[in-house]
Amino acid sequence: MGISNNNLSRRDFLKGSGAGAAAVVLSGLFEDKVYAKDSNILTEIKREPKAVELRHGFCKNVCHLACARLTTVRDGRVINIEGDKDGLINEGRLCAKGKSVVKDLYAPNRILFPLKRERGQKSFRRIGWEQAIAEISAKLREIRSEWDGKPIHHCTPQQYRRLLWYESPNGDGGVAVDLLHRLGRTFPASLHYSGCAGCFGNWWRAGLATVGSITRQDPMMDIINSKFILNIGYNLAETATNYLIWINRAREKGAKVVYLDVRRTPTADQADEFIPIRPGADGAFILGLLYVLLIENKWGYKDIYKTVEKAEWDKFVNEEVKKYPPEEAEKLTWIPAETIRRLAKEIHAAGRQFAQIDGTHGCTASNGFMTGRLYCMLNIALGAYAVPGGGEYSPKPTEIATIKLPVAGDLLHPKAVRFKWPMPAWAGDIYDWHAGFTTENHYPEVAADDIKAIMVLAGNPLVKAADSTSHRKMWDHIRSKPDSMIVIGTNVWKEECEYADYILPTAVDLEKDADDLNCQANRFLEVKEAEVEPLGEAKPDIWIWNEILKRVYGEETMFRQVADENHRAKLEEMAREGRSAQEILAYARANNLKEVYGNLEIIHHDTIKKIGREHGYDFDNHYRTWPANIFDQGHHAIFQYQVSMSALAYPMPEGTEKYNPWSGVSIKVIKEKKGIFWPFPLAMLEVDPSFRGIMKNFKNMNPMDDSPSYWTPDYFYNNINGKWVLEPWTQGKAKIDLKGAWKKAGIPKWTDVVEFTKDRSPKIDWSEPYPLLMITGKMGHMMQWSGRFNPMTGALQGPRVLINPATAKHLGVKDEGLVKVTTPRGSIVWKARITETVPEKVIFVPAHTGPKSGVKSYAVESVNMLTNRKDSDPYTGFPAYSLAVCKVEPAKEVA
Amino acid sequence: MEKAFLIDVDRCTGCHSCTAACMLEHDLPEGQFWTKIESYEKGKFPGARTFHIPTKRCMHCKEPGCMKVCSTGAIHKYEWGTVEINQAKCNGCGYCIEGCPYNVPQMDKKTNRAVKCNMCVDTRMIEKGEDPACAKTCTMGAIRFGDRDELLAKAKEYKHIYGEKGLGGAHLFYVSNITPIPDLGLPSSPAVPVSVTLWKEPVRYLGWLGFLGALAASGYQYITWRRRQIEGGKDERKEK
Q1: Long-range contacts of the stretch A129-137 (C-beta < 8 A, 24+)
Q2: DSSP code of residue A391
Q3: How many other β-carbons are positioned within 10 Å of the β-carbon of residue A440?
Q4: d(Cα A111, Cα A503) in Å, to the nearest integer?
Q5: Which of B20, B50, B136 sits opposite A793 (nearest CB)?
Q6: Phi-psi region of A76 (alpha: psi -120 to 50; beta: other; left: phi over 0)
Q7: Virtual CA dihedral for A506, A511, A514, A516, nearest 10 degrees?
Q8: If A521 and its partner were Cys, which of A200, A402, A819, A850 is the partner (CB 3.0–4.6 Å)?
Q9: Distance between alpha carbon A315 and the CA centroid of its chain, in Å?
Q10: Residues 137-156 of B with CB under 8 A from A
Q11: Strand partners, A357
Q12: If DSSP codes are grouped into helix, strand and coil, which group holds residue A259?
C-alpha cells in the first residue's frame, strides 16, 4: 500500500511527523472536544410539519448546473433539501450529490472551533478567533515586512514567493475570486494553486487561443434545438446528472446522440450510438471527420471565411487535416474508417445545428491543449457556433446562471473601484500570475527555501490536485522548517490538517454568508435566503480571510504598491489623518492609481431587491445568482441587474444594448427558436462584422480597470519578448486565431500523448513493463461535495478499479479482490470491479477519492498520486493526469 | 382514483438521487433504504449495457402479501392504492417480510418495527397530485407518478412490463423496451409463499386451538388445585 517513490514515502512521513491519519487515533489529537459528533449539536431532529420554513437557493455544486433548490429548515436546522420546480435547468430535480450537502453540513467530523498546534506537539488545542487571527496575521505581516513598503519592482522573486496558497471550487470553504485577487495583491507573485486550473487549465487556454473565449459554450437548454449531438466523453450521467434529461429531450425531438468515450459509461447507455475510442485520440478523430467533411466532400460551412482568415483556414485544412484520412485516423483512434465517414455524413445532414458536448477531461492528457483547440475547429468548420442548437455545450462554466461579477470596495459607492489583477512582478517569471497558475509539477523545485507559509483557503490538494505527490513532497519540506506556518481553512478534518499549525473552521454551503463552491458564481450576489447559522464557532471563509488580510495589509497600507512616490506620500498622509476608505479610493480613482483597492463586502438579497425597485425591475425572486424571472423581463432587466451589481457606479456604455450578450435567454425563447446569442465573439460576428468583443463593454464600464469580467490569468497579458501586452483579442476585432499567437502555439494540430508513441495497438503486449492504460474520471454521483462517498446513495462506499473480465482473468484478479495499480510514478492498492464497461487494454480508476472514509480524513490515497511528472502538456505545462501507462497485479495487502 | 409509479428502467442511469431523496424525506438511518439502485450488466464491451433499477421499493399490491400475513393488522391500504405499515400497531413479528414475494419490508434496527416505502403518504399530498420524493427528483424522469390507469396504458406501450400481474396487480410498473424485468432481480411470477399463507390461515387456526386448549388446561388445573386447597383445609381466602 501507499505511494512509493524514491525519496520520502507517505508512510515514512506520517510515522516521522507523528501526526499521520493512519497512525493516529483522532481522539488523542485534540486536547478539547472539537468534533460535531462529540457535542449534542447533532441531536436527532424529529419531523414536525409545524414551524418548518422553506428557503430558496441554488446548488453550488461543482457540476456548474446551478440547480434551483428548496431547503426545509426547522428551528434553524436543515431537515430536507430538494429541487425547486421553478428552476430553469432542473425543474424540481436535484441529484444525490446536490442533496449530500446536508451530510456535509452535519458531518460527524465537522470541526467546530479554531485550533492551534504548537510545533513539536502532537495535539491541537482550541483557541479563540481573536487569537487565531492575531497570530496568523502577525506571521504574515512578518513575512511581508521583508519587502513591505518597497516599490514592487525592487523585490526579489524569493521575497514574493513567501506564500503558497490554495483555493478550489471543489471541497469545502470555496472562496470568491475577489478574495483571491486581494490575497494576490497582498502577496504578489505568491504561489497559487487553484482546483479550477487543474481541471480547466488546458481547456480554457485552448478556447482562448483559438476562438478568443474561455467560455465558448451555449446556454445548456438550447441543446434541444440540435439535430446531431456529438458527446465527446462528457459523462454527464455520473457528473452533471440533471443535464442529461435535456439531451434526451433533444433525442425525442429527433436529434441523434453519439457518445464517444473510452469507457462505456451510463451516459453511453443513454445515447443512440456509443463509439469506443483510444484514450487521448479525440483530436485525431476530429481531424478524420474534418477530412471527410472538408477534403473528401465540400461539406463545410459555406460562409466560413466570414469568421476566419482565409489563408489561415486553408493552411489548417491543407497542412493538418490532410494528414488524417479516415484510414489514418482509424489507426490512431481504433474507430473504423467507415464509421468516421458515416458520422461525417450524418453531421453534414444536421447542417449548422450540430451540437458538441465536451468536457475539460478530454484536455487533461499531455496533448490536452491541442485537443481542446481541435474541439473548437470542428464547430468552426460547420459554422455551428453562431446558431441555436449549434456549437459547444457543456455545464462547465457556462455562466448562464452564474456569471461572475467581481466587485470590491464599497459597492454602493458611486465611484467604487474594482479589483484588478496583481501587477506583473517581472517579465519571465513563470510564477507570476499573468503567466497563469503555477503548475504544480514545478512545486518541489521552487518550494525549497522560498516558501514560509501555506494557506489553504479551500480545497483538498493532497488528494485532488492533478499531481498530489508533488504537493505532498513540498508540504513535507515546508513543515520541516521550524519557522514556517501552515493554516488550513476547512469544515472537516482532512489530509491537510495533518500538517496544520492552525485549523480554521469554515462555514459550509447552507450556512450564513458561507461557502460558494462554484467559483464562477458570485457570492456577493448570492441568494442568502437558504441559510442557517454556522455550526459551533465556524465562520464564513470570506470573513476569515478578510479579517486576516485586513490586518496584514489593511486600508492604512493598501497603497504601498503605488509606484508614484508623490501619490504614495499623499495616500499615507490621508491614512494618518484617519480619512475614510471612500476618500482614499476616490483619490486613487481621480489619479488613476490602479493599485489601490478596498475591502470586500457581501451583498445580501435585500440590497438586490432594493436595486430592482429603484430601476423598475423585479429582482425579488432569487433562485440562483440570478432572479428567477429575469429572463422574462428581457435584456434590459438583465443588463440592469448586471450593471447594478457589478458596476453600479459606471454609466452604461453607448451601444451596449446592441451587444448585450444575454439577450433574454429563457426556455420560451429557446423553444421558439428565436435564436440566442452568447457572449462569444463568433456568434456576434455574423450579426455585426465590426463587433469588437464584449470585453470592451466591460472595459468601458470601468475606466480605471483593464480587467474584464471574465477571468483567467492569461487573459489579458502575454509576455512577448519580455514585454507584457494584452492578448489575444480584447484590443481588436474578435477573431478566430488560427495562427496560434498564444504561446506561439501555431495552427491547431494533433500530436499523440507521450505514452503512446510506441504502442498504439488495441492489443495488449504483456511483455511490456506497463502493458495497460489507466484512465481516470469522476464518479460524482456517488460522492459528497467533500469527496466522501455519499452514504445516502446506498452505492459503493469506496472506489473500485474497473477491469475487463478477459484482462482480469489473465492477471488472476477477482471481483472485489484487491489490485495494485502501478504507473511509472508509484502504486495504489484498491479493490477491483470486473466489468465489461471497459476495453481489455484499459482500466478505469476514479479520481478525487480514496478508500478511507469516516471521521478521519476522507481519502488517504488518491489516483492523483500516480500522475507522471514527465508528461505535461508542452504548451501549458499542465500535468497529464487523466491518462497513464500502468500495470496491474493482484494484491494481498489491505489498502 | 388509484395512483401508481411507472419506472422506465431504460432511462435510469443509476444516479441514486431517488435513494438520497427518500432518505432525507423519511429521515432514514444510514443503511436503511426504501428504494435502492441495483445494477445489472449485459453483453460484452463495447456493446455491454448496464441496467439500473430502483428496487427494494414497495410494489403497493392490490392484494398485498404483507397485509395478508400481518399478525397485528398493522398494514392497511389507502383507497388510492398505498400500502402502509402503521408503526404504532406493528409488533415487529416480521411475518410481512416473509409474506412479500418482492422481499421489500425490512426491520428498523432501532425501533424493531417493519418499515418500507409508503409513497410519501405521510409527508406529501400524493392523493392530490403531489409527486412522492423519488418521482419528483428523478433526474432522468425515469420514475413517473400519477393516475394508475393512465400509467398502465403508457406501460403497455413498452415491450416489457412488470407489475400488472401478481398479487392482484401492483401500483408500480417497471417497463423496458430492451430487457425483461425479471432479469433485473425481480421474481418472474410473484406470489405469496405458501408457507406464510399457511401460517396465517390453517396454522393460525391451529394456533387459536392451541391457545384455547391451554386456557382450558389451566382452568382445569385451577379447579383441581382449588379443590385440593379446600380439601386440605387451607382456604387462604377464607382465612383473610
Answers
A1: A129/A537, A129/A539, A132/A502, A132/A504, A133/A544, A133/A547, A133/A548, A133/A551, A134/A551, A135/A502, A136/A485, A136/A487, A136/A502, A136/A548, A137/A547, A137/A548, A137/A549, A137/A551, A137/A552
A2: E
A3: 28
A4: 9
A5: B20
A6: left
A7: 110
A8: A402
A9: 34
A10: 137-141
A11: A231, A393
A12: strand
Q: Match 414536525 to its residue by C-alpha cell.
A: A48
Cell numbers 399530498 correspond to B125
**Residue bearing cell 464497461:** A837
Q: In sequence order, what are the residues at sequence separation of 6 or more whose Cβ sits closer than 8 angstroms to the Cβ of residue A529?
A: A55, A56, A57, A605, A622
Q: ipTM value of the model? A: 0.83
Q: Judge contact between A835 and B49, C-beta under 8 A.
A: no
Q: Work out the pLDDT band at A335, boundaries 50, 70, 90.
A: very high
Strands A723-726 and A717-720: antiparallel
Single out the residue of A372, A99, A335, A355 nearest to residue A249, CA to CA.
A355
Check CB contact under 8 Å for A264 and B140: no
Which residues in chain A touch residue B136, judged by CB atoms under 8 angstroms apart?
82-83, 92-93
pTM: 0.80
Residue predicted with more confidence, A437 or A762: A762
B20 touching chain A per CB within 8 A = yes
**A266·B52 Cβ contact <8 A:** yes
Calpha distance A881→A291 (Å, rounded):
30
CA A59 to chain centre: 15
The answer to whether B27 contacts A95, with C-beta atoms less than 8 Å apart, is no
Q: Which of A89, A222, A218, A220 is nearest to A673 (CA)?
A: A222
Helix then strand count (H, E) for chain A reads 28, 23
Respond yes or no on whether the N-terminal peptide bond of residue A728 is cis (omega within 30° of 0). Answer: yes
Alpha-carbon dihedral sign for residues A719, A722, A724, A725: negative
Are the beta carbons of A226 and A252 closer than 8 angstroms?
no
Helix (H, G, I), strand (E, B) or coil at A269: helix
Return the C-alpha cell found at A343.
458520422
Q: Determine the Cα–Cα distance for residues A592 and B169; give it in Å rounded to an integer.
A: 78
| 99-128 in chain B: CB under 8 A from chain A | 123
Q: Do you know the residue count of chain B?
A: 240
Higher pLDDT: A28 or A616? It is: A616
CA angle A74–A78–A80, rounded 5-degree value: 100
* N- to C-terminal Cα separation, chain B: 67
Contact A237 B33 (CB under 8 A): no
Residue A746 confidence (pLDDT): 83
Q: Are B13 and A267 within 8 A, CB to CB?
A: yes
Per cent of chain B over pLDDT 90 is: 70
What is the distance, to the nearest Å, from the Cα of residue A516 to the centroid of all Cα atoms in its chain? 12
Q: Which of the two residues, A106 and A448, has the higher pLDDT score?
A: A106
Give the distance from CA B27 to its chain's centroid.
19
Among candidate residues B85, B108, B77, B95, the one with its CA nearest the CA of residue B170: B77
Sequence-ordered strand ranges (E) for A506-545: none
